[in-house]
Write a structure and sequence with these properties.
The complex is a heterotrimer of chains A (576), B (418) and C (379).
Chain A lengths: L1 H24 L2 H5 L3 H17 L7 H33 L13 H8 L3 H5 L5 H30 L11 H16 L5 E2 L2 E2 H22 L4 H20 L2 H26 L8 H15 L5 H9 L11 H20 L7 H21 L1 H4 L12 E2 L2 E2 L3 H24 L1 H11 L1 H6 L4 H27 L9 H14 L4 H17 L7 H15 L8 H12 L7 H4 L8 H6 L1
Antiparallel strand pairs in A: 1-2, 3-4
Helix pairs in contact in A: 1-3, 1-4, 3-4, 3-7, 4-5, 4-7, 8-9, 8-10, 9-10, 9-11, 9-22, 11-17, 11-20, 11-21, 11-22, 12-14, 12-15, 12-20, 14-20, 17-18, 17-20, 18-20, 21-22
Chain B lengths: L1 H17 L8 H15 L6 E4 L5 E7 L6 H20 L8 E7 L4 H13 L3 E6 L3 H14 L3 E3 L15 E3 L4 H15 L4 E6 L3 H17 L2 E7 L8 H8 L5 E5 L2 H11 L9 E4 L6 H7 L7 E6 L4 H15 L3 H4 L3 H18 L1 E2 L5 E4 H9 L4 E3 L2 E3 L11 E8 L2 E7 L3
Parallel strand pairs in B: 2-3, 2-4, 4-5, 5-6, 7-8, 7-9, 9-10, 10-11
Antiparallel strand pairs in B: 1-13, 11-16, 12-13, 14-15, 16-17
Chain C lengths: L9 H16 L6 H6 L2 H25 L6 H32 L6 H22 L6 H31 L8 H22 L4 E2 L9 E4 L2 E4 H23 L1 H11 L1 H6 L4 H27 L1 E2 L5 H14 L4 H22 L6 H15 L7 H4 L4
Antiparallel strand pairs in C: 1-4, 2-3
Helix pairs in contact in C: 3-13, 4-8, 4-11, 4-12, 4-13, 5-6, 5-7, 5-11, 5-12, 6-11, 8-9, 8-11, 9-11, 12-13, 12-14, 13-14
Classes of the chains: A mainly alpha (576), B alpha/beta (418), C mainly alpha (379).
């Protein structure tokens, strides 16, 4: 038993040490100041807990479980104390560690000992500082062991079914909405946090939980009432939020529009498109040409040649809508025709290339697109002289656009074309043999997907008022694809959740600006490992994954080990 | 199914037609309409910022912390922090301390919009320092204009960043127009070169400067044998250089940042036709980093920089504080720390002039008065020189200096201050 | 279009369906569908290809050659292209290896290369600190080799960590899942390096031994370029031998063919996959260090664009095919170097040319230049 605990403890402790070292190297302690060590210990405790609960063979808080946890904590603490002492020693001796490790500065390390940087530099460190590190991490191990033991104890007891709890997910969005209203006017600093950000987070959680609620309610009269209430709340949301929150929600829903379009291409038809940004860019640029011809040297020359005025937009936002959509749809066909015969990853790289080609053209055709200096002063949409260019109205427009696209996508999903897409996704050859016209079906997927992206692009251009080629880099494609996959491929509500998580959360994480992208990237990987079918998978897709999951012997089904998700989606309930 | 499509199509058509399309307006008509409508929709930004005792005077900062040029962005942010520290060490304004609210503008118009909206929604933000890049600043500009928050950009050098219609737009960086002119003049008249090749990094900054330089050169009577763009992040320019080399230019001018400049300076030595050509770049490349990366190839190359009067003492004090806090020389990271420091000082100076204590011990700052105060800044001593704002919001001091590299260090050879 | 009539006869359709099911499940067997596709469409595509080629030739003759560049210019551009292609090849081989075994795009491979570049940089700084670079030529060569080895070790460490943490738990998941995980891993590596080592680019110091280059008239080849080209050829040869001749290589090919059957035959699939990542990452690490010496600068995102290009090259040559990756990479390098001058357009368009060539080749040869082996299986 002792050996088992020691072996497991050594492994876990070493991993925790690596994690803590990473956090130190990226400079987190310096950011947390005096809270550094407790927070790191908390992180370590969560890590220990996650590792230990996966090892059911470890038994007993006084037995191998407790032993492992204590070993792990003390070892991680010991290693960590040695490492920090080493760095502190180097700094005290005047070695410029920063030349190698950018974040190893006195400020960062001193936070770990809860002393001033000056004390560190003069080498006035008492052994208490190191003992504190070892002790806190040891405590983290004990806390994790207690957590696991407590969890097991809870598991063993039959919990009485709480009928009332079923209503909780349905009420949650409204509770959150009430909290949004309750927080009132935004952006007053309190407790070192920006209240506006908390409000934004709550608003996003409200939308997200609303989707879960909409899926959780049983069909019938109650469903209709709830859906109507949720829709009303969603429409009311823009009027409750301030400019910053509306602007973030606006971009989130523009990405929802884009994600819904990409969902058709990738989720429905199974065509991996890594260059989806091309159509977004086409939509944005076509609208920009129409609404701000005065920014494009070539267009000015042309218009002057025809004796037309060049000082204002050529057409209104609304008249431009069909034009941009047609242009983007044509772009989709243009991409679709050459790649008809390609499959899988070849398709991925060609579409990626296509996206880059469009961006490079925008960058280099300076006569037409004004190159890197972009098209400026794009007119916002107007209704009867009233400008809809402010963040709130853009959010409303994005909501309307997303609703329209979701409606069309939903109808398409069940239509003959939609079923043809699914058949094609599953097996092209068989689909063709059963009489599906592959050329038509593929082209329709590309064209419809592109059309929606064009629409999103136009709204994006109207929101930005200035657009630059760099706005349409490969990362936009990656964002769009990631949100479709994180949300759940082929699932329309999943796209909304994905956009909230991927475009919204980074804005909430703004406070930790530097760590935004690493956090996001790590979440992406963890998400794929823990829940590859996405937050809210489409029913069909979820079933497919389950079938495949059955053959994975080395991996326990992820859904079993996952704690109940907040909303209790119907799928998760069915599987339990 | 077909019917559904028709319905969907009809719906779209309706959406297209339902709104009575207003007759195409001219830009002049559109702009005021947008301005009128906006305040009605947003919460009317209060005309005054009231700061209670114990609260701070919050200055927003839009810095390019991520994106294509994180190094200069970090430098600008850290310089702004030094300026705020210094102001606070001196007691702030009547005991009210300053606070820098740093946001990541990521050097993109996209993020600039988000950051601008965040500042506009935050009623405690008094003024903004930033953005770092011109594109980012274009994102900030319309939003801050509507929200009546003045901004001072330390490093956005595109000529269009400030204009006659924008009263909140200011900068302490000098417009590219000036730098390109002086550079061309130096090349033509002092170096006596006629055939140049122009390169740029396809950023709004680099390409704009390259075009200004090219035009100025041609206007003087010189010849541009090539105008080639590269991508930020590329590391192999040999193919482009070989092509340029075929035109046998006497000098290559590069508009862009230090990494690419260093690589071009190095790789042109290996290219046929360019062995004896000289190399010149701009203030984006005037960094220690350029010297390190280019190594021996940097010797004899020229850099231009917009610098100020002899403020050596102030600069030395600033550098000392900067190194003490961040452990790195500011010039290691980027060229614009002086401007960044000055942008904060300029804002603080204007706030000092308009801030009024009220009866209950609050500090009251009138937004319109602050906008006017920043514009009327005159004779403020900064690191980059004596700052005076003109009617467009150009507050930059000093002029363009030309440096050459000698024994691994920059040495001024021409321009302002000589 | 030619299949419109097929669905009219249900019985026939079912029969064909069954036939196809059998055939599709059997790789390397010409499928019925494929036979039926040789039709009008294909002739139109070929006609289009001929027209495009003619247009291209016309453009080269009228614009490119009319500029009157000297022959030495074309030779130096070709050499530039070959060196660039050599770099792409070192990365592309890793892509192709992993793809061949796991059928997944290791999107983070370029960043693994970047980590090799960083490790090599710090190793080099250490040798400089110890003073080896000031010693005799033997010491310098030893230091250089050790730098490359250090870079390879760094990359290998990153590669196997990546495999263990981000890819292994996802084996058997649908193909998009590991791709997204790889994208996440790519961003994570890039921005972790940014946070840990700072934003300042690191500049390699070239020892005098490899400074400068070989000059003949107007043609100049840097020594680093020659080294890159030779090393990439040698490494490719070694890789080819390992995969084709060694026992492990045979195991790799077996796993590529069919994982579960290979496991039944007593092959440790996990071990083989880890070995694949070690091979691929080691090549990338060598590439990272060599690129560091050639272009002197490494920074946190310096792996991303070469990685993308190398991936393009791997697809160009037929992904999963080792000589294909080499050929594709050299071709891509040549196209990038020669294309803009030959067509008489600004060099900004080199990426457009590269990607257009990719699209065109895939239209006319959908499995890539040498990619016959795996294309059937990926249906």
């Amino acid at each position: 038993m002792g050996m088992l605990a020691a072996r497991h403890g050594l492994r876990t402790g070493a991993l925790a040490f690596v994690l803590l070292t990473y956090l130190t190297l990226i400079g987190l302690p310096g950011r947390l100041a005096d809270l550094a060590m407790p927070v790191l210990a908390g992180v370590a405790a969560i890590f220990f807990w996650l590792v230990l609960r996966r090892n059911p063979q470890l038994g007993g808080i006084y037995g191998s479980l407790g032993g492992t946890a204590l070993w792990a904590g003390l070892l991680a603490g010991g290693f960590y104390a040695v490492l920090t002492a080493f760095f502190a020693g180097l700094l005290a001796n005047g070695v410029r560690v920063q030349l190698v490790f950018d974040k190893i500065v006195p400020q960062n390390l001193a936070a770990l000992y809860a002393v001033m940087p000056g004390a560190l530099l003069s080498g006035e460190l008492s052994p208490v500082g190191w003992l504190r590190q070892v002790g806190l991490l040891g405590l983290a191990g004990v806390a994790a062991a207690l957590l696991v033991a407590g969890e097991r104890w809870l598991r063993r007891r039959e919990l009485p079914p709480l009928a009332a709890l079923r209503w909780l997910p349905l009420l949650l969005p409204f509770v959150l909405l009430a909290a949004v209203i309750g927080l009132g006017s935004p952006a007053v600093t309190f407790g070192g946090n920006n209240q506006g950000t908390i409000r934004l987070l709550l608003a996003m959680l409200a939308v997200g939980s609303g989707i879960f609620a909409a899926r959780a309610v049983r069909p019938g009269g109650a469903r209709r009432v709830l859906w109507a209430l949720l829709a009303a709340a969603l429409v009311g949301l823009p009027f409750l939020l301030d400019q910053f929150q509306n602007s973030v929600m606006g971009i989130v829903f523009i990405f929802v529009m884009m994600g819904l379009g990409l969902n058709i291409v990738v989720g429905f038809a199974g065509l991996l498109d890594l260059g989806y940004v091309a159509f977004f860019a086409i939509g944005a640029y076509v609208y920009a040409f129409l609404a701000a011809p005065f920014s494009s040297p070539w267009l000015i020359a042309q218009l002057q040649g025809w004796g037309l005025p060049v000082s204002g937009p050529l057409v209104s936002f609304w008249l431009a809508l069909p034009l941009t959509m047609v242009a983007a749809g044509l772009g989709g066909l243009l991409l679709g025709i050459p790649v008809l015969r390609l499959r899988g990853d070849y398709l991925a790289i060609v579409t990626l290339g296509f996206g880059e080609i469009i961006r490079l053209f925008m960058l280099n055709l300076a006569e037409l697109t004004n190159g890197p200096r972009g098209l400026l002063n794009i007119a916002p949409p107007t209704v009867g002289g009233y400008s809809l260019g402010n963040p709130r109205d853009i959010f409303l427009l994005a909501l309307a656009g997303a609703a329209l696209i979701a409606l069309v996508a939903n109808r398409l999903d069940g239509s003959r074309l939609g079923r043809a897409w699914v058949a094609m996704r599953e097996d092209e050859d068989v689909a063709q043999a059963t009489g599906i016209h592959l050329v038509y079906t593929k082209l329709m997927a590309f064209a419809i997907g592109a059309l929606f992206a064009g629409l999103a692009g136009q709204l994006y251009a109207a929101r930005q008022t200035n657009i630059f080629p760099e706005n349409f880099s490969l990362f936009v494609s990656i964002d769009a694809l990631s949100l479709v996959i994180v949300g759940g491929m082929g699932s329309i509500p999943g796209v909304v959740l994905g956009a909230l998580a991927l475009k919204g959360l980074p804005e909430v994480l703004r406070g930790v600006d530097e760590y935004r992208i690493v956090t996001f990237a790590a979440l992406l990987v963890i998400m794929m490992i823990v829940r590859p079918q996405g937050i809210l998978p489409s029913l069909r897709r979820g079933r497919e994954l389950q079938e495949q999951g059955g053959s994975r012997a080395d991996q326990p089904s992820v859904l079993e080990t996952l704690p109940d998700n907040a909303g209790g989606s119907p799928l998760a309930q069915k599987e339990r | 199914m077909r019917q559904k499509w028709q319905i969907a199509g009809l719906f779209l058509l309706l959406a297209g037609c339902a709104a009575p399309a207003p007759a195409p307006q001219t830009a002049a008509e559109v702009a005021p309409a947008a301005e009128e409508a906006a305040p009605a929709a947003e919460e009317a930004a209060s005309a005054q910022v009231v700061i209670a005792p114990g609260q701070t005077i919050r200055i927003g900062g839009s810095f390019a912390l991520t994106g294509p040029i994180p190094d200069p962005g970090k430098d600008i942010r850290q310089a702004a922090e030094i300026a705020v520290d210094e102001l606070n060490a001196a007691g702030g304004i009547d005991g009210f301390l300053f606070e820098l609210v740093a946001e990541d503008g990521a050097c993109s118009g996209d993020q600039g919009t988000v950051v601008g909206n965040k500042f506009a929604a935050d009623s405690t933000i008094v003024a903004v320092s930033g953005g770092t890049c011109s594109g980012e600043t274009f994102g900030l500009k319309p939003i801050l204009q509507r929200a009546r928050i003045p901004f001072v950009s330390p490093s956005a050098t595109n000529p269009d960043v400030v204009d006659a219609e924008c009263d909140v737009c200011n900068r302490v960086a000098l417009s590219d127009a000036l730098q390109g002119q002086v550079d061309a003049d130096f090349v033509f008249n002092q170096l006596g070169l006629r055939k140049v090749a122009v390169m740029h990094d396809n950023s709004d900054y680099g390409k704009g400067l390259a075009e200004i330089f090219q035009n100025a050169m041609v206007a003087l009577g010189g010849e541009a044998t090539a105008f080639e763009g590269v991508q930020v992040g590329d590391t192999d320019f040999r193919a482009a250089l070989a092509k340029i080399g075929a035109g046998q230019p006497e000098l290559i001018f590069f508009g862009g940042y230090s990494t690419e400049a260093a690589l071009i300076a190095q790789q042109m030595k290996e290219t046929a036709g360019l062995e004896n050509a000289r190399f010149m770049s701009d203030d984006g490349a005037y960094t220690q980093q350029y010297l390190q990366a280019a190594g021996a190839a940097a010797e004899g190359t020229y850099m231009s920089f917009v610098a100020g009067d002899a403020q050596a003492e102030k600069l030395a004090a600033f550098t000392e504080a900067y190194v003490a806090k961040f452990g790195v020389e500011p010039s290691q990271l980027g060229p614009f720390h002086g401007q960044s420091y000055d942008s904060i000082q300029l804002i603080a100076d204007a706030i000092r002039r308009v801030a009024q204590p009220d009866d209950s011990g609050n500090l009251v700052i009138d937004r319109e008065a602050l906008i006017a105060a920043i514009r009327s800044t005159a004779g403020l001593a900064g690191i980059t020189g004596t700052l005076t704002c003109d009617e467009l919001g150009e507050c930059g001091a000093g002029g363009v200096q030309i440096f050459t590299v000698e024994n691994g260090a920059f040495k001024q050879v021409a321009g302002f201050g000589m | 279009m030619q299949f419109a009539g097929m669905a009219l006869q249900p019985l026939k359709a079912v029969r064909i369906y069954c036939e196809i099911r059998v055939m599709v499940k059997t790789p390397s067997f010409p499928t019925l569908v494929r036979l039926r596709q040789a039709s009008a469409v294909r002739w139109w595509v070929r006609l289009l290809g001929v027209v495009l080629l003619l247009l291209l030739a016309w453009r080269v003759a009228v614009v490119g050659l009319a500029e009157g560049y000297p022959a030495s210019f074309w030779i130096s551009q070709t050499l530039n292209g070959l060196v660039l292609g050599g770099v792409y090849a070192l990365i592309a081989l890793g892509y192709t290896l992993v793809y061949g075994i796991l059928l997944m795009i290791n999107f983070a491979h370029g960043d693994v290369m970047m980590i090799g570049g960083f490790t090599g940089f710090f190793a080099l700084q250490l040798w400089i600190g110890v003073g080896w670079l000031d010693g005799s030529a033997l010491w310098v060569v030893l230091a250089l080799v050790l730098t490359v080895v250090a870079g390879m070790l760094g990359s290998v460490l990153a590669g196997i960590t990546l495999e263990r943490v981000a890819y292994r738990p996802l084996r058997g998941a649908p193909r998009l899942v590991p791709l997204i995980s790889a994208i996440g891993a790519s961003l994570f590596l890039q921005y972790s390096v940014l946070l840990i080592f700072g934003v300042t680019p690191r500049a390699y110091t070239r020892p005098a031994l490899i400074e400068g280059g070989f000059r003949a008239g107007d043609i100049f080849v840097p020594y680093t370029g020659i080294i890159i080209f030779i090393v990439s050829l040698l490494l490719m040869l070694a890789l080819y031998l390992i995969v084709q001749r060694s026992k492990l290589g045979r195991a790799m090919r077996a796993v590529a063919e069919d994982k579960s059957t290979a496991a039944l035959m007593g092959i440790n699939v996990d071990q083989v996959i880890v070995f694949t990542f070690i091979l691929g990452s080691a090549l990338a690490g060598a590439g990272g260090v060599l690129l560091g010496f050639h272009n002197t600068v490494v920074k946190f995102n310096s792996g991303f664009i070469p990685g993308l290009k190398a991936f393009t090259a791997a697809v160009l040559g037929g992904i999963g095919n080792i000589p294909g990756a080499m050929v594709g990479a050299l071709l891509l390098g040549l196209i990038e170097a020669l294309g803009p001058s030959a067509l008489g357009i600004p060099t900004e368009y080199k990426d457009i040319i590269a990607f257009s060539v990719l699209v065109l080749i895939l239209i006319f040869r959908p499995s890539g230049l040498l990619g016959e082996v795996l294309s059937e299986k990926k249906a």
